[in-house]
Specification:
Distance between the termini: 86 Å
Oligomer: single chain
Low-confidence stretches: 2-13
Strand content: 15-25%
Shape: globular
Order of helices and strands: HHHHEHHHEEHEHEHEEEHEEEEHEH
Mean pLDDT: 90
Number of helices: 13
Largest sheet: 6 strands, mixed
Number of strands: 13
């Protein structure tokens, strides 16, 4: 009788666990369908139907040891901003938002989730443990290169990672100051740069090289799900009814997919750096994503100094703001998703088309050699 009771108790506990896991998965699916802005882009560009894909997944294969692994399968096929935080990554994101909260109070919704007691417990996180200096998904600081020749200054910036901003950013400005020359072209090479923090390029690439304030306007489309609203409100974004959309858009049918849109202005002020130069050339490629794509979008809209973009179309998703954090109700695991589809200057969806270079060259061609061989022609 005791053995039967134990078996029944175990079966009951297992059933309860599966039920809670299914609740988490249903919550995840609803979060994606209500807030994620690119499902129709994946269908059109990649031929990938996410909702059809997840129907084939086995919900009963979740165990305590592989929750993130199994749950992550439900995020397959979505863009590079969509992922669960792992135990290794959690301290990185915690410090990233917490360290910037005082200066940017609009980050409070992100910090609130990461500070949640149940979330910290799920990730075995201790505030007193110092995070490792890992740059998750971003290049290492040793890949920064700075060289100067008679007619140009070359800066290779392989990452805009926030942890590298303080150590590497000032070195870039100092090097440009040391090689300031109104007859030299500045070559900024961000090929392979997959993103990081927009503050990196704003503070250390743009502000030192402009002599007047530059203002650009961004257009974003939103699904408008409930989970996204606190993050939108914290950014003080004014949501407008999509029925009143009066901007240029490449695919008019896309408007059926969204509930709101926004028009926001952003400005970057110059700093007195004393850097002189002839013109700027930016080397880009298909790996530019997120914050590095945002830099290219800024260059395209603002005609930042006198510049030319050389390379291949970027991977996009740089027009918008940080992906929101979603906490699952039972496991308290956290995943990230973008919530806005930014529009390029030509009305196309940024994540679908990326930023188009002024001079397209095949990826098999060495971009730097190409630029140096034609530097006076640009």
């Amino acid at each position: 009788i005791l053995l039967i009771s134990v078996i029944l108790l175990f079966a009951s506990c297992t059933s309860l666990r599966i039920s809670k896991d299914n609740q988490d998965l249903e919550y995840l699916v609803s979060a994606i369908n209500d807030n994620y802005p690119f499902l129709q882009v994946h269908l059109r560009r990649d031929g990938f139907d996410w909702n059809k894909y997840i129907l084939g997944l086995n919900k009963n294969s979740v165990s305590c040891s592989n929750k993130i692994e199994i749950f992550s399968k439900y995020l397959y096929g979505l863009n590079g901003h969509v992922h669960f935080l792992t135990n290794d990554q959690f301290p990185y994101y915690y410090d990233l938002y917490q360290d910037n909260l005082a200066e940017y109070p609009e980050l409070l919704p992100w910090c609130s989730i990461l500070n949640d007691t149940k979330v910290k417990k799920a990730y075995n996180f201790d505030n007193n443990i110092q995070p490792t200096n890992q740059t998750f998904g971003f290049a290492n600081s040793k890949d920064f290169i700075k060289t100067s020749e008679t007619n140009y200054v070359y800066i290779k910036v392989p990452s805009f990672d926030d942890q590298l901003k303080i150590s590497e950013g000032p070195k870039i400005v100092t090097y440009l100051q040391q090689n300031s020359n109104k007859n030299k072209t500045i070559i900024i090479d961000i090929s392979g740069n997959t993103g990081g923090s927009t503050l990196f390029w704003e503070d250390y690439l743009v502000r030192p090289l402009i002599n007047q304030k530059i203002t650009i306007t961004k257009i974003e489309l939103f699904r408008g799900g409930q989970l996204s609203l606190p993050f939108i409100e914290s950014r003080k974004i004014n949501l407008l009814d999509i029925n009143n959309f009066d901007q240029k858009i490449e695919n008019i049918d896309d408007l059926k997919f969204y509930k709101y849109f926004s028009k926001t202005e952003g400005s970057i002020e110059p700093i007195s750096s004393g850097i002189e130069y002839k013109k700027i050339i930016v080397i880009m490629n298909k790996y530019n994503f997120s914050a590095s794509d945002a830099f290219l979008d800024f260059c395209k809209r603002s005609n930042f100094a006198i510049l030319v973009l050389v390379g291949q179309n970027s991977s996009g998703d740089g027009i918008g703001f940080d992906p929101i954090l979603v906490k699952l109700p039972n496991s308290n695991l956290v995943f990230r998703i973008p919530i806005s589809a930014g529009l390029n200057y030509d009305g196309s969806i940024n994540y679908e088309k990326g930023i188009t270079p002024d001079v397209y060259i095949d990826e098999s061609v060495n971009s730097l050699y190409y630029v140096l061989s034609r530097i006076d022609e640009f």
